[in-house]
Amino acid sequence: MTDSATPTPKTKFSDLTRMPDARGHFGPYGGRFVSETLSFALEELEKTYLSLRDDPDFQAEFDYDLAHYVGRPSPLYHAERWSNSLGGAQIWLKREDLNHTGAHKVNNTIGQALLAKSR
């Protein structure tokens, strides 16, 4: 056990604010592995995303679609009987299953469709 006054030593993976690097790598491993024929399309997608991610109109359209098509924000359900049976721990379930497609994957799909539409 470490003393609370002793700072936790930083490892090369502890500062995630610098990742991914310019090549898309998370530390010495990872990054992109795509066929050469898709590299140009992936770079174009990245440029489009970077140009739109802070655009208020793009974000407003994305938020609108998430709210009116997907059903965001997903409701929370208090699992009261389960909470009681576990001795008081409060169990809440985020109901991703109620999304239009029944999962979180639609978030990415909506974002990619808006990026493609913007081109």
Can you offer a commentary on this structure?
This protein has 119 residues and is mainly α. It has one domain (34-118). Helices cover 44% and strands 5% of the residues. The protein contains four helices and two strands, in the order H-H-E-H-E-H. It has helices at residues 36-52, 56-70, 80-85, 105-118; strands at residues 76-78, 92-94. Strands 1-2 form a two-stranded antiparallel sheet. Helix 2 crosses helix 4 (105-118). The longest helix has 17 residues, at 36-52. The mean pLDDT is 81.
Quote the average pLDDT.
81
Q: Biggest β-sheet, characterized?
A: 2 strands, antiparallel
Total DSSP helices: 4
Order of helices and strands, N to C? HHEHEH
Structural class by helix and strand composition: mainly alpha
| Strand order in the largest sheet | 1-2
Low-confidence stretches: none
- Extended strand count: 2
Strand content: 5-15%
Estimate the global geometry from the Cα principal axes: extended
The Cα radius of gyration reads 21 Å
Terminus-to-terminus distance: 54 Å
* Secondary structure: helix percent: 40-55%
Domain tally: 1
Protein name: Tryptophan synthase subunit beta
Function: The beta subunit is responsible for the synthesis of L-tryptophan from indole and L-serine.
Organism: Vreelandella sulfidaeris
GO molecular function: tryptophan synthase activity
Fold blueprint:
Elements: H1 36-52, H2 56-70, E1 76-78, H3 80-85, E2 92-94, H4 105-118
Antiparallel strand pairs: 1-2
Helix pairs in contact: 2-4
